[in-house]
Amino acid sequence: MAVIESPLSEDVQKVTGEALQGAVVDLIDLSLIGKQVHWTLVGRNFRSIHLQLDDVVATAREYQDTAAERAAAIGVLPDGRAGTVQASGIPQPPVEWVHADDAIRYFVDVFTLIVARMRDRIEATEDDEVTQDLIIEITGALEKHHWMWQAEAAQN
Amino acid sequence: MAVIESPLSEDVQKVTGEALQGAVVDLIDLSLIGKQVHWTLVGRNFRSIHLQLDDVVATAREYQDTAAERAAAIGVLPDGRAGTVQASGIPQPPVEWVHADDAIRYFVDVFTLIVARMRDRIEATEDDEVTQDLIIEITGALEKHHWMWQAEAAQN
Amino acid sequence: MAVIESPLSEDVQKVTGEALQGAVVDLIDLSLIGKQVHWTLVGRNFRSIHLQLDDVVATAREYQDTAAERAAAIGVLPDGRAGTVQASGIPQPPVEWVHADDAIRYFVDVFTLIVARMRDRIEATEDDEVTQDLIIEITGALEKHHWMWQAEAAQN
Amino acid sequence: MAVIESPLSEDVQKVTGEALQGAVVDLIDLSLIGKQVHWTLVGRNFRSIHLQLDDVVATAREYQDTAAERAAAIGVLPDGRAGTVQASGIPQPPVEWVHADDAIRYFVDVFTLIVARMRDRIEATEDDEVTQDLIIEITGALEKHHWMWQAEAAQN
Amino acid sequence: MAVIESPLSEDVQKVTGEALQGAVVDLIDLSLIGKQVHWTLVGRNFRSIHLQLDDVVATAREYQDTAAERAAAIGVLPDGRAGTVQASGIPQPPVEWVHADDAIRYFVDVFTLIVARMRDRIEATEDDEVTQDLIIEITGALEKHHWMWQAEAAQN
Amino acid sequence: MAVIESPLSEDVQKVTGEALQGAVVDLIDLSLIGKQVHWTLVGRNFRSIHLQLDDVVATAREYQDTAAERAAAIGVLPDGRAGTVQASGIPQPPVEWVHADDAIRYFVDVFTLIVARMRDRIEATEDDEVTQDLIIEITGALEKHHWMWQAEAAQN
Amino acid sequence: MAVIESPLSEDVQKVTGEALQGAVVDLIDLSLIGKQVHWTLVGRNFRSIHLQLDDVVATAREYQDTAAERAAAIGVLPDGRAGTVQASGIPQPPVEWVHADDAIRYFVDVFTLIVARMRDRIEATEDDEVTQDLIIEITGALEKHHWMWQAEAAQN
Amino acid sequence: MAVIESPLSEDVQKVTGEALQGAVVDLIDLSLIGKQVHWTLVGRNFRSIHLQLDDVVATAREYQDTAAERAAAIGVLPDGRAGTVQASGIPQPPVEWVHADDAIRYFVDVFTLIVARMRDRIEATEDDEVTQDLIIEITGALEKHHWMWQAEAAQN
Amino acid sequence: MAVIESPLSEDVQKVTGEALQGAVVDLIDLSLIGKQVHWTLVGRNFRSIHLQLDDVVATAREYQDTAAERAAAIGVLPDGRAGTVQASGIPQPPVEWVHADDAIRYFVDVFTLIVARMRDRIEATEDDEVTQDLIIEITGALEKHHWMWQAEAAQN
Amino acid sequence: MAVIESPLSEDVQKVTGEALQGAVVDLIDLSLIGKQVHWTLVGRNFRSIHLQLDDVVATAREYQDTAAERAAAIGVLPDGRAGTVQASGIPQPPVEWVHADDAIRYFVDVFTLIVARMRDRIEATEDDEVTQDLIIEITGALEKHHWMWQAEAAQN
Amino acid sequence: MAVIESPLSEDVQKVTGEALQGAVVDLIDLSLIGKQVHWTLVGRNFRSIHLQLDDVVATAREYQDTAAERAAAIGVLPDGRAGTVQASGIPQPPVEWVHADDAIRYFVDVFTLIVARMRDRIEATEDDEVTQDLIIEITGALEKHHWMWQAEAAQN
Amino acid sequence: MAVIESPLSEDVQKVTGEALQGAVVDLIDLSLIGKQVHWTLVGRNFRSIHLQLDDVVATAREYQDTAAERAAAIGVLPDGRAGTVQASGIPQPPVEWVHADDAIRYFVDVFTLIVARMRDRIEATEDDEVTQDLIIEITGALEKHHWMWQAEAAQN
């Protein structure tokens, strides 16, 4: 007997659970690389980007918790351990002093990747409106960050 | 090449962008006429309506910002300049001292108009769930204001 | 002529109104039985469950107000009187000192029942996206509480 | 052996417990009918009465908790379930749009009834000063609300 | 030798001191009659006017303190005792239940009187810019209250 | 017919009303003379006494409002106008720069007088427990201030 | 001549002073043993009891100050020194790691003892209503804590 | 008869009213174009300018309300409707992605224009010190913003 | 070409700039000597004067920033470096333990000097109302501090 | 087997534990005598010293908790019971009305004693840097209080 | 040439940098496994442990940021990427529903390991007092958590 | 006899006092030059550096107070007067409009100088652990600022 009884059928639970697990991993990795560049950043725009990265980390931390708790609420075990996160497929920043311009270009690419995955997850969760609603909300928040990084990447 | 790369196809971007632009204009005009009557109101219920109009303005300002930033996030330029807003098609209040009863009837009509437009926009944005979700939230908030103005318009 | 003009067609208004009325009754009863056990609880886990029940009551009170005001906003009269609530069909706790273990098992069952009803209401409200969005949000919050009671019910 | 040992003699405990149980039921019903009219109110004074009813509900909720916890503290089980509350004997509002004037008259009557009962409870609890002190405080708060409804009922 | 050495010449100190003393008396009396009607008010608009009067009292109390401390700062003794205040020349409210309409008309008149006096004090203090600046600020605040009472006095 | 219906018999209402009216007058006068000396104080302990007087004024303002609203709640008209307050019988401070030591002695005497009157009012209100409870609370607060002034008056 | 003049007769002052001194000692000792077990607690319910003990300490510290200042206000010297407190007669916890179950049983007994003493003090202070009112309030707060410890002591 | 009685003579009222109406229009337009560029900004300094524009909007909104309410307080009807605002004469930003450097130069020019107009209004309002004082305060705030935009426009 | 374009003519800019520069230097030096005596104070009134000096420092720091930013806003470079401040002409406190009485007398003299200079600056800035308004506000704040030090200097 | 496993060797644990136990006792006693004199103080500086003693008590309570929890964290049982505290060796204040001057001299001596002991404990804990760091922080806070009492004790 | 110039010699920088890098990895992994068990926990103590784990995560996140920024400040690049963290050597929790008792035992072991490593890092950083001070503070915080988990692991 | 008795031997007091006096002077000068450039800054990064300089000033002001009060606490007179500060040896900024790039390079150099001095003071204060702990904390905070300025100085 399941420890946590799911309000969903087995099939829907499986598909929804995979979408949530994917989101958890992406959001944890986003919080780790956000902090990584927060620490190694250099260059003229240092302070502004340094602070903006803390906004990214705050978004990522808030939603990784919401997504993982939603997984538990439908009887699916989330996995947010480092060993799992390191296989996220998100390109990693180097362990070097990162110049502001490079950081901006890097995060434009990271968000392009994660937003595309999240949009697939919106489709995948159409049989559980509660989870879908949450994925939609997360996607909206990530696309807003994406816009800001792109706005900064525009040639002055 | 677009400055802000859209997560949407060109067609969906166009339709969604028009819906958001319409919402931005309606909400800015609502904030302007809300303040206008806030300043020119007179009559027995002055204080109560005076405060209620600031609630309307707060709602309108919060969502005009959210809607316009969503437009930017999907690569569409919002236009919230006075020259654009003055073509909103929303009936304008006179520049006279406005009695409370007239103000109530006026805002019942204004909300009837804007709510109908927002409901059309819910339909129009069905291909971008993120934007649709936002339009639904705005509509719910406007319908709540609509109810309150109607409740006040009832004959005592 | 209706006092509050509905933004919905008559048919949709009727179905949506019934879903909201059902939610209002369930949520009021949940707040009453939550307080009842908050007061009569005994046993080793007293303090922890005592506080958790206040979280349940806070959720139930917040959403009963939102749901009832949404009913009014679509021109439907909500009914939250004790005589109506006592026919909710939710099993009632005894007027006895309730041990923590019994309280946990009781609330697992209560949430199983209410969540199932709320999921039916998500289906029933598909023709008014604004209301459906609200029901989805409420369901998500109730399923999160459900998970927590189940987690506590697991045999140690 | 009693689960909660009473600091009072058996006789005093019984009389005091009945007074507290009566107060709990009255205050829960007051919070329910306060919300009911909060939702169904219409008319010129809508906003002002709408807000005032939330003040009534806040008072009723705060003191129902205090009174029920005092009952538990003297070893008496409070009963705040819907089935018990619906027998409170307090006249119920109709499920109709309620005009502001009718709402005012209705709550003047409701408070006349509850205040009279609370004054009897002050007498009944004279052998437990701690409970009596609490009943006095509740009565003072209810009489202040009573005054305000009466002040509003005066012919302009 | 003066206890508090004035930064002003004797003549300017005398004229400025009289203006401040007049303001102190008017503002204390305004706070007393504001509270008086706050307590004896009745009628349909009770709650709204009841709260508005506390705004008046807050303004009056804040500025009586500022004005009196300014008097002390220029070496002039303020006098805010009841015996002095009762000779303010401001018409007093009756000790009766005051209907909302009468209260509104009464405060329109009171503010007409006090605003006129304050405008004279602006002229009178032109030789001490620091005090004049304070009187101007007080006048602006009082004229804003005046507008609101007049707006409410307009026939609906 | 009375505008505000009293929950008390006519006799009790009369006696209780007089006690409350006396308290209102004493507390308003206390707030006025507290401010008066706050402004005219001089000497080594200036800052400490200056701040302590604002504590006195805060206490006096809070309780004059509570007492006057209680009077209204039992159908008695409070009178807090300057003309009434100036007959309080409380000795008035001079309009002179007041030295700290004189201020301390003066307030010891003022509190001796007011506390004695309040104790009489506890006796006088024994037939309305709600009012009595309020008078007791006010007396306790005033006696605490009294102790502090006496402690300061002790010869160093 | 007394440094602090008592508002009470000599007899009443003596009896009331003894009651307050007893309360001060009990409450200081309660705050010390509450902290002691807060530090030495072990076992499954550690965190929950650890936090609950800080609630006990907060109650005890707040009321020891109120009671001691009330003593001073009636001209009686409170004595809260360690040498006096150690003779309180309240059983002391051992200097050992205390298991949660033992802690619960221990505090049930401690509160049984202190509550009984406080009830005697209510009787003893009947000639000074201000002090009696304070003792009643403290007793109510302690009886609420007592109920919670008993609720936790119930066999699950 | 005027609805709102002016404390000013007819001539002064007319001149003062025109100055305030001009300020209202300029400040509303400033809030609209501030938001417009807040949404369409791109380039390296995006985040810093994005935030700074919200400071500009906050200043503009606060003072448009103060200026319009001052107009009402002297019996002059303010006009803040979109149709009126679009004739402000302030150059409008394009509906394009705006680069940070262009935004900075644009706002330097906008502030040069508005500050010059406000300085004319200081002269024009010299017969109503209360209004003049308000215009001076607004001018000071706008000149501070002007300095900051100029500082940013300096060649690095 | 000037980096920061002045809204003032060259003559007015020069005179106004000198007044602001003088104010900046006086206020920085006031903040330094305020802290100096805050640290070296001794004697019976230690705590009270110690705290009061932090109020002086807070005032001085707030206005030195406002005055210097106003200078920049009119295109004048403020100079607040230690080498400039040490030529302020304000008498310096000794590096010794300073007794409370000496501190009081010292600050009475310091404020007499600075207030006189600020009054001259009010005259000097009459051609730029914005700056003059700021200088007036600073003067008022300093004269209030001056009064308090004088009040404390009065012989007890 | 130890309930709480120490991160320290047995020798270091013993020495460190004794230092922490000594600090706990000193700080509890300091909080008790601080309150004792807070209650029995009289004289001209009453309010200032009364408040300063609450600062002392706050410091003492914060660090007694930190020190005792550190003891538990290294596996040592702290003992903060009244019977243990009364043997602290710190001279006790009399149960008399204490004049401000005597209080100041008394606390200068108390702090001289406790600071000396704390400095010994810094030496004693050099083999556990974590505890030593805590003792150093406590000593710094106590020496700051010591300075203030000495400053007040200086002859004016 | 180094981008960030170190205040330390090359040798000290190397050793200190390794200690900080180790701390960063341990603290990130602690935050990940803390969240992991926060999500998969079940059993009687669910709520209490669920909350306690968020305290652990908060501590771990705060100090990983402080430690990494300290590394950057001494010119050493921290590495907090998932691939690096997964080699931390800290035993990982299973992806299963974790019972409360197992969670407690697990975290006792995790803290035993991390505390031992941190104590080595205190030794290793003795040549940079600033870093050592930070490591000592982190160790103290972790040892406090360690105590709490051990206290909960004690057999009841 | 010393006014403030030192807890240190004469030798240690002298050396420690010199270190603290040096820190006080450096930190006051840092706060003055931080403000100076805050006011005269120009260029593309204006707003970001303008805000960062206020962070520097906040750090400098907090620690100058802590260091000076520590000096007083060990019986040493701090000297923070302008005449003393202007001999700090820290290079001064010009009284010119300062471009952002120059400001960044300037503060990198200033922090290099001050950090080196603070590291010497850590060595110098090793015989008073309390002061040394404070100097270490200040150094850590300054080195964090140093890193940020260096990061910004890196070529993009």
Instruction: Give the structural class of chain A.
Output: mainly alpha
The most extensive interface between chains reads: A-K, 32 and 32 residues
CATH fold label of chain A: Ferritin
The CATH superfamily of chain A is known as Ferritin, core subunit, four-helix bundle
| Tally of discrete structural domains of chain A | 1
Q: Report the oligomer.
A: homododecamer
Strand content of chain A: under 5%
- Uncertain segments of chain A are none
Tell me the radius of gyration of chain A: 17 Å
Shape of chain A: elongated
Number of H- or I-type helical stretches of chain A: 5
Distance from N terminus to C terminus of chain A (CA atoms, Å) equals 61 Å
Structure, explained:
12 copies of one chain form a homododecamer. Chain A has about 160 residues and is mostly helical. Chain A has a single domain (about 10-80, about 95-155), classed as Ferritin (Up-down Bundle). Helices cover about 70% and strands about 5% of the residues of chain A. A two-stranded parallel sheet of chain A has the order 1-2. The radius of gyration of chain A is 17 Å and the shape is elongated. The mean pLDDT of chain A is about 95. The interface of A and K includes residues 28, 40, 81 and 82 of A. Chains A, B, C, D, E, F, G, H, I, J, K, L: Pfam families: Ferritin (PF00210).
